[in-house]
Amino acid sequence: MANPLKKTMAYLGLVEDELEYDEEPVATAHPAPVAPVQHPAPAKAPVTPLRKPTPARNVTVQEVNEILTVHPRQYSDAKMIAESFREGIPVILNLSQMSESEAQRMIDFSSGLTQGLRGKIEKVTSKVFLLSPEHVMVSGSSTTAGSDVEASFFAGA
Questions:
Q1: CA 40/CA 37 separation, integer angstroms
Q2: C-alpha atoms less than 13 angstroms from C-alpha of 21 in its C-beta half-sphere
Q3: Angle between helices 78-86 and 100-116 (to 10 degrees)
Q4: Digits of tens for pLDDT over the chain (157 positions)?
Q5: What is the largest CA-CA distance in the chain?
Q6: 3-state secondary structure of 4
């Protein structure tokens, strides 16, 4: 049974094992009793958890006394937006002075920022977006297609 397929099938129990055994002479002498060997209990290996629990951030709910309005000209202005948003300051993002490719990158970055910090991003106009932190409630009338980022960014441009 040199065929690997036959060996695999025999291992899985799909066919009878046809191994050839060499018969050894059987000793007629009685073997000496063997004392059972006691193995020490296996020590448990240290386990590293896959994900360490992160302590919950205590975001103090405070009154909003500042709203940052940003008119970015290039993608590198995203750092200032992120720093303000992390501090709990709502950000109005006006992308009218950016090229379309840079504006799309900025929207992608802002979407990830708000998602990661449990905030919300809302489309105000075709090139203006509101990034509101988790503790800020935004009220007002909104249409179903124009209020969320789910609507196409370039549809109205």
A1: 10
A2: 5
A3: 20
A4: 468 888 888 888 787 766 555 566 555 566 667 777 777 777 777 777 776 655 555 555 556 678 889 999 999 889 999 998 998 889 999 999 999 999 999 999 999 999 998 899 999 998 999 999 888 877 776 554 444 444 445 554 4
A5: 98
A6: helix
Q: Which residue in this structure is represented by tokens 């300051």?
A: 89
The β-bridge partners of 112 are: none
What are 71's two structure tokens? 């008119």
Residue with tokens 């050839």: 20
With beta carbons less than 8 A apart as the criterion, state whether 106 and 98 touch: yes
Residue 72 CB neighbours (<10 A) = 19
d(CA 67, CA 89): 6
Residue for token pair 């000496």: 32
Q: Which two tokens stand for residue 39?
A: 């193995």
DSSP 68-130: EEE--SSGGGHHHHHHHHHTT--EEEE-TTS-HHHHHHHHHHHHHHHHHTT-EEEESSSSEEE
Q: Which amino acid is at 104?
A: Q
